[in-house]
Model the fold of this input.
Amino acid sequence: MSRDDALHFSVAIDLPQLRVEAEAALPARGVTALFGPSGSGKTTVLRLLAGLETHGRGRIALGESVWQDDANGIRLPTHRRPIGYVFQEASLFAHLTVRDNLAFALKRARTTEHPVGFDDAVAWLAIDHLLDRRPERLSGGERQRVAIARALLAQPRLLLMDEPLSAVDADGRDAILDTLEQLPERLGIPIVYVSHSIEEVSRLADHLVLMSAGRVLASGPLNTVFTRCDLPLAHGAHAGAVLQARVAEHRDTEHLSCLRFDGGQLLVSTVGRPVGAAVRVRITARDVAIALSAPTDSSVVNHLRAVISAISDDPNPGHCLVTLQVGAAVLLARITVHSCHRLALAPGMAVWALVKGVAVR
Amino acid sequence: MTPTPADLDAIWLTLRLAGTVTVLLLLLGTPLAWWLAHSRARWRGVVNALVALPLILPPTVLGFYLLVALGPDGPLGQLTRSIGLGALPFTFAGLVVGSLIYSLPFVVQPIRDAFIAIGPRPLEVAATLGARPLDAFFSVVLPLARPGFLTATVLGFAHTVGEFGVVLMIGGNIPGETRVVAIQIYDHVEALEYAQAHWLAGGLLLFSFAVLLALHTLNDRQARR
Done:
């Protein structure tokens, strides 16, 4: 049975420091990142979706079911919304063991068509060995893994995560990210993920809601929002594109893997994933150079045929931002204005994009 | 030297009074403590001050006003008479009412502070996991506030046991009805029965010490778990 569980919301709240007024429609599947600087209202939007902000107004609907519609006097309290919520800091019940924390959720779970079993959640989050411990005996990463498992056992139809990795050290973060990557496929429900880390967002998100000063600046597929030159993201130090690719082959003697995407292929250091596996590659704008002909005497391995779709100003003095169409994909290149003039670059020109660095996830 | 039947009566009466008052205060004080911990009402400060008043008010002052209020012509006295309870002064029920007020801060304040220390987060978490507010209160807040409830129970009980001034004012000195241990000690001293007085006073001293020791041990153990 297929169901349209797209999330539509239009919410507002006046906080002492900030007025939040946000509206968006999110896809029924996959991860939507609520992205923006601290204080932009990301967490508040998440809390409004969960019904945790009692003064919030507006309309929230998941598929057919309306959770809140203040104009018509509808408002489900938090405990009647089929959500899972992972808080920023450890939020385990201190008086219960890990097992009892999980059981708390399971006992009060809303039934669904695809229930998450106790053993499934424990296995996915690798917390089998922690079940009889109390929360204070867990590391930050372990606590968040338990908190995520507990949220899943509530059998949510919408999973809300508020910077779940901010209190987790780098090692733990990587392990949890690996798990989170697999969640969308396992759960088949929309996930809203609040973050201000471009790393996490480019690794997890399919859809991006960009927030600033309590408002939604843009909402759309991840790479579309990432590469839009009219948004601040494309002009940040870490501006870049995220491409969806597949492992095409491994060249073991050269310690390289070949990745194929909608605009060509990329050679990267050996990827520890099987042939055919989907991977994400992130290419930052400063790692892309432009040449007019295919360079034969360069050490740069990856050359991609591209067409310039736009050239825009960049806040970095002396630089400009070139938007490149590479097949169906879009890349950004940050080059000097000097080079731009020397090569007489203009929209519509066919060029070569020289990719100096590729981060594979 | 053994306790006289009158001494035993006084002990039994005191335990009955302290037990009744403690149970009632836990029942009535918990919602009040909850309100004090969570309300943003402007007159919360006033209520906080009223709750704390018995801490610093001389018991005789409290007892005097209670006597007036509960007396046949007092506002509370008229109320109790109109609902058929009769006049409360110089009865066990009157002692219970007086002690409820006298020991109120000792029960309400530890519970209120425990609620504040827990903060809103565990309740929010419980709600996101599908727990209704009452469910969340009993399954999350109550267990987390256990040290506060333990302190409240012990202090409320012990403080009621040690009460003297209020009892004297509104209870008088009726054997088996209002003559609690503290009054009995006073009577012994008045009659120069120092040995009898020692017996009861020493007992109260030991009792108070044992109760506080047990409380600290229990709370320490809880903290270390």
In short: Chain B has eleven helices and no strands. Chain B touches chain A at residues 121-122, 124-133, 135-136, 139-140, 143-144, 146, 225 (CB under 8 Å). Chain B has a mean pLDDT of 89.
